[in-house]
Amino acid sequence: MSKVKVRIINQSNNPLPEYATEQAAGMDIRAFLEAPIVLNPLERFLVPTGLFIELPKGYEAQIRPRSGLAIKQGLTCLNSPGTIDADYRGEVKIILINLSQEPQTIHPGDRIAQMVVHDVERVKWKPVKSISVTKRHDGGFGHTGKS
Fold this sequence. Notes:
The protein has 147 residues and is mainly beta. It has one helix spanning 67-73; strands at residues 7-10, 18-19, 27-30, 37-39, 44-54, 59-64, 75-77, 82-85, 91-98, 104-106, 111-119. The strands form three sheets. Strands 2-3-11-6-8 form a five-stranded antiparallel β-sheet, with no helix packed on it. Strands 1-5-9-7 form a four-stranded antiparallel β-sheet. The protein is globular, with a radius of gyration of 19 Å. Its cofactor is Mg(2+).
């Protein structure tokens, strides 16, 4: 696996984002809070992390939900995956929503999301009069799940 160097400022008292296992694709991101917050059902909150990153040109960071939070507490990320562009320099913040039926508490330092850094391909559009036909053609929105 190649390793890309990313400059980071950590204004929180949490450790830097890190991979939980040797083969993990995403790094755990932690909440930088002064006190616990309670999210009521269907309530959303922009959680600060205290992290500021400088991605190299040609890279992005994606913010994704943590599966354990989703299944155990009903907490997930909105705008998922959220994209952090290489030219963004603001604080990394995570939009969390409580999709459970009970209030959920987020404590300072809780692992609330994961970040995946990846290279980005740029598109150059080629206007044409037609595109190729496939067996699927224009079938979408679940059409392959029914016979």
